[in-house]
Amino acid sequence: MDPLKLEQRSKVPTGQEVLETGQRPHLPLGFGLQEGAMENRPRRFLQAFAAILKHSNYRLALEQYMRVNARCGRCNVKCQIFQATGEACDLPCHRSELLLSVYRRHFTVSGVLRGRLLGDPGLQDDTIDKMAEAYYTCTLCRRCQLECPMGIDHGLITHLGRYILSEIGIVPRVSAAQTPEPSPDSTGGAEANPVPALLDNLPLLREEIKNATGVDVEFPVDRTGAEYLFFPDLSDDLEADTLMGSAAVFRATGDTWTLGAGFYDGLHYGLFYSDQILEHALQRMRGEADRLQVKTIVIGESGYAARSAKSFYPGCAGEGPAQPVVSLVEYTHRAWKSGRLKLRANAISERVTYHDPCNFARDGWIVEEPRELLQAICSDYVEMTPNRRDNFCCGGGGGTVSIGELRSYRTSVGGKAKAGQIRATGAKYCVAPCANCKKQLRELMEDQGIDCQIVGLHDLLYKAIVFE
Fold first, then answer.
1. N vs C: which end of the chain shows fewer Cβ within 10 Å?
2. Do 141 and 398 touch, CB atoms closer than 8 A?
3. Would the pLDDT of 236 be above 60?
4. pTM of this structure
5. Are 386 and 354 in the same domain?
């Protein structure tokens, strides 16, 4: 495809236009196309695919999924994107088939022989275009897996598709910025939150807490030998209320903790599009934990950062036993259950509801803990329906919230179901313990005209902590 034609795709359709006309947002416009990304794409795609298969275990999953070849369409009842658009290209099984067909044609003996006999040229540019569009309008919520009778993980296939595309230079700008060698003052690609800016703000937060509560809450940096190394996820904003609430919890429990000036933020999108970036970020996390000689790693309010560390840190962090990893939500809940954290009942009188981040709830990992904490401090707590493992995605999952060109699509199509849920509760506060979810939901509330404030779990806990 002519790169000039891509540049002519300057207007991403709004979600309403997608619903009314069927026009879809064209990608890879809005992507950080690297030099040469439009040249010889099919050949380079297959080379990258072959290399990934050689050095990973993806082939095992692809062989299984290729054989069961389930295209019954039952996944459509779980996919909120398909439910909003009704487009066949939004079916999870259709999306997965884009990559499975390439694997079947080019990486199996029968596929290669059949292609030669029938003169099938194989992978073409238009298929790569379809993949880019399909894989980056999917939110990777993995809700479809709950309904698949064959257990196909369409989210895994979508991740693999993104991984291959990234290897040939097709990757969103915000993800492309997360290079293997980030600048010394950045968090691994998140230039919005350099270390000096964080250090300048910490004294202000400490003063604000003392003025409000009369308690001196420290924000230690580079404290050697602390019990916990804390990695917040600051996303595009400082998330000051969440950070103050997190520090207040550590102050109330009396545990020693620290931030690391060498690598302090859990922000990275490797889980969404590149195993190499994921591994690099986890190795930097390990290096910081070893440098500061801490015992345990705590990941702040971030679904994808917590899942990345919890699931992949032990295997990607390098040689030797790795430090255990817990989510801040788990840490806070355990401290409260053990009596080391005191919370004031009915501290929040307004109506509150809770949004389950997909990376917390889809596998049943962190589900009841935040609910128990909220019910302990809220006098009017209500649930959305469906919830827990069956929750609707915020609409910006899988890193799509980072693609600014897709905002109207995310808030009209991707987040349509979630907007209806929140509106139905009539809640004043919607708690979302994930920086990506909070960003998407705030944009969703604004674009959908819903009067609901999106906050983190520790934003509200901060108002209920009893300091002893």
1. C
2. yes
3. no
4. 0.86
5. yes
